[in-house]
Design a protein that fits this description.
It is a single chain. The protein has 530 residues and is of the alpha/beta class. It folds into three domains: 95 residues, no CATH class; 218 residues, Type I PLP-dependent aspartate aminotransferase-like (Major domain) (Aspartate Aminotransferase, domain 2); 126 residues, Alpha-Beta Complex (Aspartate Aminotransferase, domain 1), CATH 3.90.1150.10. The chain is built from 15 helices and twelve strands. The strands form three sheets. A seven-stranded mixed sheet has the order 1-7-6-5-4-2-3, sandwiched between helices. The chain is globular. The relative contact order is 0.14. InterPro entries: Aminotrans_V_dom, GDC-P_C, GDC_P, PyrdxlP-dep_Trfase, PyrdxlP-dep_Trfase_major, PyrdxlP-dep_Trfase_small.
Length: 530
């Protein structure tokens, strides 16, 4: 993997940019050049008048501020313009096709947003009395029911906040089950094509991660798995496997994998990040899965990206159901009740603890249930079919120019290319992705999964029309042919047309500048003064 370490120009309109004229303001039509608020706001003024209050008693002890806070003051129009202009620099699924592989950036129906804003859902508070939110509890229970139906599982932990949090929940349930049975296995098996959070989660819980090789076709090597199980007999806690996997391929031997794991007294954790490919088509419980997180913010269309919000419920098999964490909802003759403490549990319930202070993300629950109910079982199945169809449409449209590491076999919801088609062109995967920005597309996922060199992972989801896919394929073909013609300038300096040019990602990660410092006044030379 090669990262940019050359510190290429970042400002728009830099020297050598032959693609764009310079302007006096730095603006480019409606594309506004927006400075930091520290650069144009005034530290002496504020857009809001607040009365001084010297009567309040300070209760934070030694944490009392010793200097001015240093935030610039903005008038209301300035504040509005600043954040509106910044928002115009964001790429979003509402702007265009968002081909990030393994991220499922799909359309968010506005009906879901309307439902999430209904009184009684949008305005409830986690600390208000449970007796005042019966409708919210019933909604959570209804969503939990359909999650279990769609996966054929026996229980679901609703509180995890996102995918990695859900992974942790599932693996903690597995650890609790082993402990309850008097076992203490030390090893978790993780295939090569796993998401990076899988081995990280296992390591966080104190497990040793053992890698399982992939076959030439990108799926788990069943013989390698058998050999590894034999080598570590009696010491395996479970396997963490993604299906469909991160290469965009369905693990066809998944049932045999599950049987081998169960025979070894271990558990099968499935990473559910790619559930959008199989909803209504295959039930993980039927495949032998014991625990799987479901990204509501992917599969069931809630806002995704920019760090949140998210929700990652974990469905559990009958073997793991007793170990679901607190809090959970229990059905009674009087309706549903929220079980929040171990003292309130009943025989057979052995929660491993609590994952989070409160039950979960109410807005995400409402959106997910709205999505399910508006689509119905047939609509959910069609969404999966269309997601797979769209990915294969892109695969077929590009396979004669771009290179497929596992041959021209059908993929699932995402298609994986490697960089061998760029050999001897002088263009790297990073260059190619940056040139996509100039064409108005967010780049695909780059350099992941690590099982292929220069990976380019594209997931169009079911949201895209044929016209949108045709334009995307045509654009990609034009970029490929440009690279093969030796037009390296189109790539080496890209993006040319973005608000900022190519960033030094390595420098930004290793030496982040987290505090704005006012620059020193520019010196005026005698020649300049004249």
């Amino acid at each position: 993997m090669s990262m940019n370490t050359q510190g290429r120009p970042t400002a728009a309109g830099d020297a050598g940019d032959a693609f764009r004229p310079k302007t006096f303001t730095g603006n480019r039509g409606l594309d506004m050049e927006e400075p930091l608020i520290f650069e144009f706001g005034s530290l002496e003024t504020t857009g809001v008048d607040l009365d001084e209050d010297d009567s309040a008693e300070f209760e934070l002890g030694s944490f009392k501020r010793k200097a001015e806070i240093g935030l610039p003051g903005l008038a209301e129009p300035e504040a509005m313009r600043h954040y509106v202009r910044l928002s115009r620099n964001n790429y979003a699924i509402d702007s265009g096709l968002y081909p990030l592989g393994s991220c499922t950036m799909k359309h968010n129906p506005r009906l879901n947003e309307k439902m999430a804003r209904l009184p009684g859902f949008a305005d409830i508070h986690p600390l208000q009395p449970v007796s005042s939110v019966p409708g919210a509890l019933e909604l959570i229970d209804a969503l939990a029911h359909w999650l279990m139906v769609s996966t054929n599982t026996s229980a679901v932990a609703m509180s995890p906040k996102a995918g990695a949090h859900g992974e942790l929940c599932g693996m903690m349930a597995i650890k609790a089950a082993h402990t309850a049975a008097g076992r203490d296995p030390k090893i978790v098996l993780v295939p090569e094509s796993a998401h990076g959070t899988n081995p990280a989660t296992a390591a966080l819980l104190g497990y040793k991660v053992v890698n399982i090789d992939a076959k030439d076709d990108g799926t788990v090597d069943l013989e390698a798995l058998k050999k590894t199980i034999a080598e570590h007999e009696g010491n395996i806690a479970g396997i963490m496997l993604t299906n469909p996997n991160t290469c965009g391929l369905f693990e066809r031997e998944v049932k045999q994998i599950a049987d081998l794991i169960h025979k070894a007294d271990a558990y099968f954790y499935c990473d559910g990040a790619n559930f959008n490919a199989i909803v209504g088509k295959a039930r993980p419980g039927d495949l032998g899965v014991d625990a799987m997180h479901i990204n509501l913010h992917k599969t069931f269309s809630t806002p995704h990206g920019g760090g949140g919000p998210g929700s990652g419920p974990v469905v559990l098999s009958q073997r793991l159901a007793p170990f679901a964490p607190l809090p959970f909802i229990r059905k009674t003759e009087k309706g549903v009740e929220l079980v929040e403490t171990e003292a309130a549990t009943k025989d057979g319930e052995q929660p491993f603890g609590r994952m989070t202070a409160f039950h979960g993300q109410m807005g995400m629950y409402v959106r997910a249930l709205s999505y399910m109910m508006s689509h119905g079982s047939d609509g959910l199945r069609q969404a999966s079919e269309d997601a797979v169809l769209n990915a294969n449409y892109i695969r077929v449209g590009l396979q004669d120019l771009m290179s497929l590491p596992f041959g021209e076999r059908p993929c699932m919801h995402e298609v994986l290319f490697d960089d061998s088609f760029l050999k001897d062109t002088g263009v790297t995967t990073l260059d190619f992705a940056k040139a996509m920005i100039d064409e108005g597309y967010h780049p695909m996922t780059m350099y992941f999964p690590l099982v292929v060199h220069g990976a380019m992972l594209i997931e169009p989801t079911e949201s895209e029309s044929r016209a949108a896919l045709d334009l995307f394929v045509a654009t990609m073909r034009d970029l490929v042919m440009s690279a093969k013609r030796g037009e390296t300038e189109r790539f080496s300096g890209a993006p040319y047309l973005a608000p900022r040019r190519r960033l030094d990602e390595t420098g930004a990660a290793r030496k982040p500048v987290l505090k704005w410092t006012e620059p020193a006044p520019a010196e005026v030379t005698p020649a300049a003064a004249e």
